[in-house]
Every structure is written in C-alpha cells, then in structure tokens.
Amino acid sequence: MNTLTAPWRHGAQQAWASLAAGWRDLRHRAGGALTRFRRKDAAGREDEAGWGLVSADLRVEDDRIIVRMELPGMNREDLQIDIDGDQLSVSGEKHFEQESGDGSYRLLQCAYGSFRRDLILPHIVDAERTQARYRNGVLRIDMPRSDRGRRIPVRAAD
Predict the structure, then answer these.
(1) Between 126 and 9, whose confidence is greater?
(2) Which residues are within 8 A (CB) of 133 and not within 5 positions of it... i.e. 6 or more apart?
(3) Where are the alpha helices (DSSP H) in 31-49?
(4) pLDDT digits (tens, 9 = 90+) for 46-82
(5) How many domains does the chain have?
(6) Is residue 49 included in any domain, yes or no?
(7) Is 79 a domain residue?
(8) Which residue, 112, 31, 34, 131, is CA-closest to 73?
(9) Could you tell me which residue ranges the SHSP domain spans (predicted)?
C-alpha cells in the first residue's frame, strides 16, 4: 500500500511547495500595496473589511522624491495626504456606486471603502513645498527633499 501512495504524496508535496512559493513571490512583489479597505454599513458601523491593491512607485531624484499611486475610480476630494517626518500617508475613501437595474453581481473584485497606505520615505522632505495632482486615476506627489540636516564643524578646544 505504501508504494501506491508514495507517488501521490510526493506529487502533493511538490504542488504545495509550488503554491507556497507562488504566494511568497506575490507577497514580496506586492509589498505594502496590499491595503485593507473598511466599509460602513447603513448604521455607520464598520462592515467586514475587504482587501485591494494600492500600487505605488517611488522615485528618488537629486532634489526631490516623486510618488505615483494608482487610485482609479476615486475623486480627488476623497483623498488626504499627510507627511510626518519620513512617513507619507495617503488615505481616502472609494465609494461603491450601485448601478440601477435588476441584475446582480456575479464577480466583484474591486475594493471599496476607506483605506490608508503608508510609505517610508528614504529622505526627509519639505512638506510645505510638496505638491499633489490627481488625474486619470493616478495620484502624483512631488516632494522636494529637505535641507534640514547640516554638518557641524568641530573647533579646537581652548
């Protein structure tokens, strides 16, 4: 009996290892993009949470940091951007708009509700001069790097 189940067991172990490797790779590639969306029910209580991807690109240039986030289907009025030290936080709410008609959804993959996506910035930025634009579902945040730090000269002791 052992000789009959050994190939099946080996195949199942290989399939499991492949599936686990695939999930690890997806988690690594998605990084922090996997974001929790919280919906509110009719009474204003938080409903079950859904998950969605909020993809971001972060580019460092000599004098600035540029972040692009894909946020399709949102209004710019529903977005909020905060900078605290080296952390950029983008939060907002993506509203679910029920289309009229008698049909029902058979597939619903888009995430709706309130969310928050945090990114650690590689340099301190000047929050006062930061600019943001939202067009065609893409949020672009242009943050000038700060010159807060400075070198302190060491003097000879008297």
Answers:
(1) 126
(2) 139, 140
(3) none
(4) 666 677 778 899 999 989 999 999 999 889 999 999 9
(5) 1
(6) yes
(7) yes
(8) 112
(9) 47-158
Range of the domain at 87: 32-97+109-144
Residues 6+ positions from 138 with CB-CB distance below 8 Å: 68, 69, 70, 71
Q: Which pTM was predicted?
A: 0.68
What pLDDT is attached to residue 138?
95
**pLDDT, tens only, 28-45:** 666 666 777 777 766 667
First to last CA, the chain: 90
The type of residue at 129 is R
Place of tokens 């988690």: 27
Taking the C-alpha atoms of residue 73 and residue 111, their distance in angstroms, rounded to an integer, is 10
* Structural domain contains residue 113: yes
* Residue 103 belongs to a domain: no
Angle (nearest 5°) at CA 50 between 44 and 55 = 120
